# Entry
Amino acid sequence: MKYYILFGPPGAGKGTQATTLRDNFHLCHLSTGELLRGEIAAGSPLGLQAKALIDAGNLVPDEVVEGMIASKFDTVKGVEGFLLDGFPRTIAQAEALDKMLAERGESVTGVVSIMIPDEMIKDRIRHRASIEGRADDARDEVIENRIRTYHAKTEPLIGFYKASGRYHEVDGTGSIPSVASRLSDLMKVL
Ligand code: ADP
# Structure
């Protein structure tokens, strides 16, 4: 099985690209953001706990997302691998992922990082807000907190994965199909 991590700042286009990559490589696309929004929509206890944190632009606790991912690894069948989107987002989650996969005799295939300049992040999120209406896209202060959280807690993962030779970058600027083909070309050789 392949275990790809789709990495990048909020608004880099992970969700957009994930659909194409999922189809091209016969993967299960696992987006922790989408799973959490599903819990919120369903009004589950987990959703209630997550909503206030997400709406403020903060991360939900590591154990919550780790549990969601582990249960998908155990239940999703009939795919050639997984495309992780939005997970891991902290060093603790990355360590938990390595452990989870080792317990299943598997390992991370590679991290593919979509790089866009900071000034493009806000433009893309504002554009998405007008289409998808996500609560956490609506307010500038929340977007700014998410960007801060990304730099503080998620960006250190770059060094973590570089140290083990699993980190790869693609240019995330340009058209959606051109970014998709850069990502596909890279994933083919991992
Ligand atoms: P974006 O990539 O635009 O930040 P996501 O849909 O990936 O959007 O995530 C939305 C929110 O869900 C995050 O801001 C965070 O609050 C929560 N979330 C998603 N994934 C994780 C994770 N791995 N760990 C903690 N919180 C998460």
